[in-house]
Write a structure and sequence with these properties.
This is 3-isopropylmalate dehydratase small subunit. By secondary structure, the chain is α/β, with parallel strands linked by helices. Helices cover about 30% and strands about 15% of the residues. Strands 1-6-7-8 form a four-stranded antiparallel β-sheet, with no helix packed on it. Strands 2-3-4-5 form a four-stranded parallel β-sheet. It starts with 5 loop residues before the first strand and ends in a 6-residue tail after the last helix.
Length: about 200
């Protein structure tokens, strides 16, 4: 996965409370080959009108949202099913970090395993950020995982990012759990060689 040190970006606001994984990516798209990118399915149904055309009022459909790599989302974002495809859709769309008062537990852990940084901030801070961005949509936010803080625009200040140390280290290094295991490949191969040398019947 792609390493995350810090990200400075404008922010798209998707203020849906209890936005579930089926809203993030409808289940019918999970049969698609991810090699083609799941980003095209992100918020597929809720960003469109009844006739299938893109709703210009939806945050990600606005021209100024095209470069945003950070989303401010509603509380309990990513609730519902355990589908990892919801995280794939966000990552493939180019989203690097999410800010919310809270996330669905399984979604939160799936995000960490795929290098998507979920930042929990108190609800009043998220509300203040949403109000600020409504008036100043081009003001950037910086999510600095190395420094362990998110810096908000205006007078909203800096706030700590709390992520479990193992997950933080993996994201900073750009390693998923398989890639982390492979960093120890020399030791693994040496152990296996010694084990077979001591027990030759294992290699038969």
């Amino acid at each position: 996965m792609k390493a995350f040190i810090r990200e400075t970006s404008t922010v798209a606001v998707v203020p849906i409370v209890n936005c579930d994984t089926d809203q993030i990516i409808p289940g019918r798209f999970l049969k698609a080959d991810r090699a083609q990118g799941y980003g095209q399915f992100l918020f597929h149904d809720i960003r469109r009108d009844a006739d299938g055309t893109l709703d210009p009022a939806f945050a990600l459909n606005r021209p100024d949202a095209a470069a945003a790599t950070i989303l401010l989302v509603g509380d309990n974002f990513g609730c519902g099913s355990s589908r990892e495809g919801a995280v794939y859709a966000l990552v493939d769309h180019g989203i690097r970090a999410l800010i919310a008062p809270g996330f669905g537990d399984i979604f939160y852990n799936n995000a960490l395993k795929n290098g998507l940084v979920p930042v929990r901030l108190p609800a009043p801070v998220c509300d203040a950020l949403a109000a600020h961005l409504a008036a100043h949509p081009q003001d950037p936010v910086t999510v600095d995982l190395e420094a362990g803080q998110v810096t908000l625009p205006g007078d909203l200040g800096a706030h700590p990012i709390t992520i479990e140390p193992f997950a933080r280290d993996c994201i900073l290094r750009g390693l998923d759990e398989i890639e982390l295991t492979l960093t120890h490949l020399d030791q693994i191969e040496a152990f296996e060689a010694a084990r077979i040398a001591a027990n030759p019947w294992l290699g038969r």
